[in-house]
Amino acid sequence: MSEKSQRRRKALASGTGVAIAIFAALAATGLSLTGPLKPATPDKPANAEAPKRTDWRELARLALDKEKLSFAEVKFKSGLLTVTGDTDSADDRARAFNVVKQAVLGDPSHVGVVLALENAITLGGQAMADAPDAASTMGATPDAKACQTAYDTLLDGRVINFGSGSAVLAEDSKPLLNALAAVVKRCETYRVELGGHTDARGDATANQALSERRAQSVADYLVSKSVPASLLGVSGYGETQPKDAGGNAEADAKNRRIEFKIVEDGAQ
Predict the structure, then answer these.
(1) pLDDT tens readout for residues 1-26
(2) Is the dihedral of CA 257, 258, 261, 265 positive or negative?
(3) What sign has the CA pseudo-torsion 256, 260, 261, 263?
(4) CB-CB neighbours of 121 under 10 Å
């Protein structure tokens, strides 16, 4: 073999040795030519399941069964958990509702899911005037969204009634107003606008004035229930913002209303 060939072989051998040394050093420090090695990720168990959601109806049912209150039933729809049934005992009626209430509130995951609790148990076949309780289910520190949801839940399918053509509150609206007052006090961080609306019958100017008086009547009632006046704003919109433009009795009933709207900048 020529001297030139020998030198070439020695060079190749030397280069191979250097490369091997470099790879060994990289392996020892956990590095590679393409970047740092990623730690191994443990495989997830094949049978891993997502956390189970609470069955609120079943939770309430079990609590009632434990207390042997078999006359009561439970419904849960659109965030409203309703206790139904019939009993001749006012004490048993109240106890059944409280049992369900404590069972639900005892599970912290109810916040934002169970929006209100309603006692719809009849007493000797007679429907009672209870309004849903949306104040108890809001959590410790409700934000603006939770507060608005509580107002909307209470006023979904329910209206504050007045005497015909007047701003005198109807007696049958007092339970609903009490439930709304409880929410306002829980949401003391936020001011709420009470917006009065009328149907389109009669004179527009008179309707505007009536809407303002009705909103003020609601504000006065809430203040009588220890709601700070500083949390309340009053506005009247008359017939300018109808919910239903049908022009019939059903539409008119929807349009005569008081709305509660959170003021985002908070209480002053």
Answers:
(1) 555 555 555 544 555 554 445 545 54
(2) positive
(3) positive
(4) 24
How many helices and strands, by DSSP H and E, does the chain display? 7, 9
One-letter amino acid of 146: A
CA dist 125 and 103 (Å) reads 26
3-state secondary structure 185-217: HHCCCCEEEEEEECCCCCCHHHHHHHHHHHHHH
Torsion angles phi and psi, residue 160, rounded to 5: -85, 120
Is the full-model pTM beyond 0.85? no
At residue 184, φ and ψ (nearest 5 deg) are: -55, -40
**pLDDT tens-digit profile of 130-182?**
999 999 999 999 999 999 999 999 999 999 999 989 999 999 999 999 999 99
